[in-house]
Design a protein that fits this description.
Low-confidence stretches: 1-14
Helix content: 25-40%
Radius of gyration: 23 Å
Strand content: 15-25%
CATH topology of the largest domain: Vanillyl-alcohol Oxidase, Chain A, domain 3
CATH class of the largest domain: Alpha Beta
Strand order of the largest sheet: 15-12-14-13-17-18-16
Structural class: alpha+beta
Distance between the termini: 20 Å
Length: 479
């Protein structure tokens, strides 16, 4: 039987390779759907844009479906003809496994919808919606949801790996507010997963959603927006003489970080002055009166520059466009920390300094994201596969360069820093906490979803995606 299946699969692949994408898919799709072969002049208009040049998928063609029905037909035809594919939106995934993908890009750009229902207190977003697309509608409605930070990243993609951001302390993770999805499965069927229908599938999607199908729409429970839609933001820059003091102050916040405060530290290099800098960005979703103490603490650490501004939430999120730059080689990696060890963070600072000086073409950065860990906002553990609820700080490393010769040393730097941080993370050494949206790709399923979750997750994978056509970047093992 296995031999027969393999023979049929090879025959289907041969048939697919011998015909054009237009001939294979076109007769079954609506006129609004765009199809482009790799060498077509309009290919760049049809394929989803890519953030990083590092280990990108190798596309054989691209399709931009116009309707949900089109998407169902595309999946059905592709699976039947053994055509490999991957659905994309923002194009920000940087797992090294993406470099092994060879197939058809399904660009979800046309599913760009944001529908707010005040009566049910929910917002439903389409698969093509970016985080920047939800900012103004939510602001005008006086509402908020847990959300990522960068406006060019897809809403659903940022959510289904966990969903962290500056407002995590106020509203929890993205998966905590995610109540329902519409999903095209490997058979081309359109199913709904919520707490009453396909609840086991919703459990898996809340943390591993890319592995089970193409989500066409996701519904979130909304919360009142904080501070009437206003915030205080501060940016404080320190040089090496103050870095250890900043890390020591960060350790004080391990157990007392207020929910309305989001903090990000970034280590970067100024090649004009030839010095490594530590920037502390603070987003305070409350008034100035409760921000004063944080402001005074930041000034006491002797920054070389300080800037504090009152902004609306629209202005806050519009300004977070760092990951929206393109054209460079960018690889990322992460580890979750359960405690702040100032000496280790200072070692990371010093290691980065040495690397910047050794490789003048390196323009990467390393970041520490600190959001309040509010237990009252979490969905019960049994309702979401996302496992790392005890993470207090997320380390995100971004290798950025334009010379491909830097790939090997930058990857070695990432792995070295990850190991060093994990050693003093406060977590067991055999239990690395990997936030799957930031995964480098070599960590494995236990690190992404937790050992105890894998049997159930694997069972659901076999049920919903037995051929393994989804989840190419961070695949679920099938036991």
């Amino acid at each position: 039987m296995r031999f027969l299946y393999q023979t049929l699969a090879l025959a289907a692949a041969a048939r697919a390779a011998s015909v054009s994408l237009e001939s294979l898919f076109g007769p079954y799709l609506s006129p609004g759907t765009e199809i482009a072969e790799l060498n077509d002049t309009d290919f760049d208009d049809v394929v989803s844009p890519r953030w990083s040049e590092w280990r990108p998928p190798s596309w054989t063609g691209a399709i931009k479906p116009a309707t949900e029905k089109d998407l169902q037909e595309i999946v059905r035809i592709a699976v039947a003809n053994n055509v490999s594919f991957m659905a994309t939106n923002g194009g920000h995934g940087t797992s090294l496994i993406y470099g092994t993908v060879n197939g058809l890009d399904i660009n979800l750009e046309n599913f760009n919808s944001v529908d707010i229902d005040l009566e049910s207190n929910t917002v439903t977003v389409g698969a093509g919606a970016k985080l920047g697309d939800i900012t103004i509608p939510l602001y005008e409605a006086g509402k908020a949801i847990p959300r990522g930070n960068s406006p060019c990243v897809g809403v659903i993609g940022a959510t289904i790996g966990g969903g962290i951001g500056y407002e995590t302390g106020l509203f929890g993770l993205g998966v905590d507010a995610l109540t329902s999805v519409r999903l095209v499965t490997a058979t081309g069927a359109l199913v709904t997963a919520n707490t009453t229908h396909n609840a086991d599938l919703l459990w898996a999607i809340r943390g591993a959603g890319a592995n089970f199908g193409i989500i066409t729409a996701a519904t979130f429970t909304m919360s009142p927006q904080p501070n009437n839609g206003n915030a205080v933001i501060g940016s404080f820059v320190y040089n090496s003489t103050a870095s250890l003091g900043v890390f020591e102050y960060l350790a004080i916040l391990d157990d007392v970080l207020p929910p309305e405060l989001g903090v990000q530290l970034s280590v970067s290099y100024n090649r004009t002055t030839n010095e490594t800098l530590l920037t502390v960005d603070i987003k305070h979703f409350a008034g100035w009166d409760t921000f004063v103490d944080h402001f005074e603490s930041a000034l006491a650490l002797n920054p070389i520059s300080a800037n504090v501004t009152n902004v609306t939430l629209v202005q806050l999120y519009d300004g977070l466009d760092g990951p929206c730059q393109t054209g460079a080689y960018i690889s990322g990696g992460t580890i979750g920390l359960g405690r702040t060890d100032p000496a280790t963070l200072q070692e990371v600072f010093d290691d980065m300094t040495a690397f910047y000086r050794q490789y003048p073409g390196y323009i990467g950065q390393t970041l520490f994201q600190r959001y309040a860990n509010n237990n009252t906002l979490k969905t019960p553990a049994h309702t979401a596969v996302y496992p790392w609820r005890d993470t207090k700080m997320f380390w995100l490393h971004e290798n950025i360069y334009t010379d491909p010769a830097l790939e090997k040393p930058t990857n070695e730097l990432l792995v070295k820093l990850r190991k060093k941080l994990h050693a003093t993370s406060g977590f067991p050494q055999d239990q690395p906490h990997i936030y799957v949206n930031y995964a480098f790709g070599d960590e494995g399923a236990e690190a992404w979803w937790g050992e105890e979750n894998l049997p159930r997750l694997s069972f659901l994978k076999r049920r919903w995606d037995p051929k393994g056509v989804f989840g190419r970047g961070t695949p679920i093992p099938r036991f």
